[in-house]
């Protein structure tokens, strides 16, 4: 069974599992199914804004899709949430990517 099918199987029993949804979005990116990945990341972060790990990947995807303004917004939201969570590593990664994009 391929990875996407396996993840979807797990999601059937726990459809709101952010770890699994994040993993599925990353698999979609590998297959260049960027719209599906974007929708999943947005759903995760809308429902669970404290799921800090998805901000970076969503913003990077938006950069790839040439949606710079949206990418900046998501980096900023991610930095705010990472700071609130005390996740200095995530904050630093988000800040570095943000600065690379903005400056």
Write the layout of secondary structure elements.
Blueprint: H1 3-13, H2 18-30, H3 34-47, H4 53-64, H5 68-85, H6 88-102
Helix pairs in contact: 1-2, 2-3, 3-4, 4-5, 4-6, 5-6
Give the tags.
single chain; Serine Threonine Protein Phosphatase 5, Tetratricopeptide repeat; 6 helices; mainly alpha; 103 residues
- Taken from the alpha-carbon principal axes, the silhouette is globular
The oligomeric status of these chains comes to single chain
The helix content is: over 70%
Q: Report on the biggest sheet.
A: none
Query: What is the annotated CATH architecture?
Result: Alpha Horseshoe
CATH uppermost class: Mainly Alpha
Per DSSP E runs of 2 or more residues, the count of β-strands stands at: 0
Structural domain tally = 1
| Cα-atom radius of gyration | 14 Å
Distance between the termini: 44 Å
The number of helical segments is 6
Share in β-strands: under 5%
CATH superfamily: Tetratricopeptide repeat domain
Q: Look at the structure and give the mean pLDDT.
A: 97
Would you kindly provide a written description of the structure presented here, covering whatever features stand out?
This protein has 103 residues and is mostly helical. The chain has one domain (3-102): Tetratricopeptide repeat domain (Serine Threonine Protein Phosphatase 5, Tetratricopeptide repeat, Alpha Horseshoe), CATH 1.25.40. The chain has six helices and no strands. It has helices spanning 3-13, 18-30, 34-47, 53-64, 68-85, 88-102. Helix 1 runs antiparallel to helix 2, helix 3 (34-47) runs antiparallel to helix 4 (53-64) and helix 5 (68-85) runs antiparallel to helix 6 (88-102). It starts with a helix and ends with a helix.
